Amino acid sequence: MTRNTRLTLSLAAAGGFLAAALALKLAEKDGLMSHETAVRVLQVLTGLALAVYRIVQESLTNTRKHGGSQVRASVALIYTDDCLVLRIVDNGRGAEAPGDGMGHGLVGMRERVSVFGGTLVTGPHVSGGYAVEAILPFPGPESADRSMAQAESQES
User: Fold this and answer.
1) Domain range list for the chain
2) What is the DSSP string of 88-140?
3) pTM score of the predicted model
4) Going by DSSP bridges, is the β-strand pair 130-137/83-90 parallel, antiparallel, or unpaired?
5) Which of 38, 80, 112, 115 could form a disulfide with 150 if both were Cys (CB 3.0 to 4.6 A apart)?
6) What is the rounded end-to-end Cα distance, in angstroms, of the chain?
7) 66-70, 85-89, 111-115: range with lowest mean pLDDT
8) What is the CATH number of domain 3-155?
């Protein structure tokens, strides 16, 4: 992953986080939620943003490592009312790519997704290449404490 790609992903994550923080602050100010609830939701969104960043990072690392010299990848982030869908697809070697058996990237992605009760599907893409799709439900405030504790334990 190039320095520009890392910077772009970091800025995108920061922008999304700041927008979420502002929306929560406005909801709190308008009396739509308590301060405590806003803080818990913001903590979960922070963990969710970190999980998304790390999944994209690992997917693009795998693309570069296994996809071949002319590989290209696309990253899509799709928001629905109740979940976030993250889709990374490359045009590389797919199932034919040699593996070194040394990595733990797919396992790590699966663990990050499971913290939020989501699903991860990985494998060869129908049009060639490789695909990673993570579906991450937006957790409600009641599950914020549990999700944050699990996310923090993965980072240590």
Assistant:
1) 3-155
2) EEE-S-GGGS---S---HHHHHHHHHHHTT-EEEEEE-TTSSEEEEEEEE---
3) 0.67
4) antiparallel
5) 115
6) 24
7) 66-70
8) 3.30.565.10
